[in-house]
Amino acid sequence: MKPSYRSRPEQARQIIRVCIVLLLTAIVFGCAGCSKIKNDNSTATANEGGHGGTSAGNSNTGPSSPPAPPSAAGEGKPTTWEANATSLNGKDGETLTLACAPNGTAHSVWGSDIYTSDSSICTAAVHSGLITFQQGGTVTVELRPGRPIYGASERNGVTTSDFGSYQHSFVFKTPNMEAVLREAEDATPVMWNTSATVVSFEVGKTYKFKCPAGRIEGSVWGTDIYTLDSSICNAAVHAGKLTAESGGPVTIELRPGQDSYKGTTRNGVTTNDYGNYGHSFVVK
């Protein structure tokens, strides 16, 4: 039997094939390792905020500080001076930031600090001292449920009107909003010509109002017991509960009507006689 052997050229070719296989294997694994190193370095660069990536502090997807509210940034949805809160079509509890244009004109407002939703928002903001007609400005309103009564007052060149029950309201969001609203709810501001007909009538119910300093004439019928359409503030002066110069708080109690009312002069106020009237009030 002949011994098995390979010739030298054949052995050389076999060695070359093995070397090629080993070389290709080394290249494949080496490239995989390089790819991993590249990916790791890219991730590290991005996380470190280097030139090759986006800084975490400026990333659109990473954590960031909350944006400033529109009112703080001086931004808001442009609105007209005629626009009221009803037109916002919002829900009670919702807040909206609005921008009132400069050189505005006055429009109707009912309420004082708490306004009916059909009041002009921008004009109410002037009344509240938040903006001016000349400069306009940005305000944030909070929509609220309705109230049984809305007051009236004169502030910053705007005189508002009183109103009875209305289904929706709005207030302005300010740092001292809660204190302002507590005061408005404790005693409803009224003008000297505001009569007690503004309230929902219920015998025995009491209401607290606040009269401004400096009397403006308003009619009163009766003595001690006054017709419901009498001026609240003037009746309070007639009853000796406050003075015209100082104004102040006054509480009334609703009473049944009287067959007749007798007029008298007291404390600088002259009241009128009247016949039968179905609703009355007394000053507490």
Structure description:
The longest helix has 41 residues, at 8-48. Helices cover 23% and strands 25% of the residues. The protein is α+β, with helices and mostly antiparallel strands. It has helices at 8-48, 121-127, 177-186, 232-238; strands at 77-79, 95-100, 111-112, 114-116, 137-147, 154-155, 158-159, 166-172, 188-189, 206-211, 222-223, 225-227, 248-258, 265-266, 269-270, 277-283. It folds into three domains: 11-51; 77-174, Ferric Hydroxamate Uptake Protein, Chain A, domain 1 (Beta Complex); 196-283, Ferric Hydroxamate Uptake Protein, Chain A, domain 1. The chain is elongated and about 125 Å long. The strands form four sheets. The protein has a six-stranded mixed β-sheet. The protein has four helices and 16 strands. β11 (222-223) and β12 (225-227) form a beta hairpin.
Based on the model shown, name its key terms:
Ferric Hydroxamate Uptake Protein, Chain A, domain 1, six-stranded mixed beta sheet, 284 residues, alpha+beta
Q: Proportion of β residues? A: 25-35%
Shape: elongated
Number of domains: 3
Question: Which percent range fits the helix content?
Answer: 10-25%
CATH topology of the largest domain: Ferric Hydroxamate Uptake Protein, Chain A, domain 1
The number of helices is: 4
- Over the alpha carbons, how many angstroms does the gyration radius reach? 40 Å
What is the highest CATH level, the class of the largest domain?
Mainly Beta
The arrangement of helices and strands along the chain is: HEEEEHEEEEHEEEEHEEEE
Structural class: alpha+beta
Give the uncertain stretches in residue-range form: 1-9, 27-73
The N- to C-terminal Cα distance equals: 139 Å
The appropriate CATH architecture of the largest domain is: Beta Complex
The CATH superfamily of the largest domain is identified as LCCL-like domain
Number of strands: 16
User: What is the typical, i.e. mean, pLDDT?
Assistant: 82
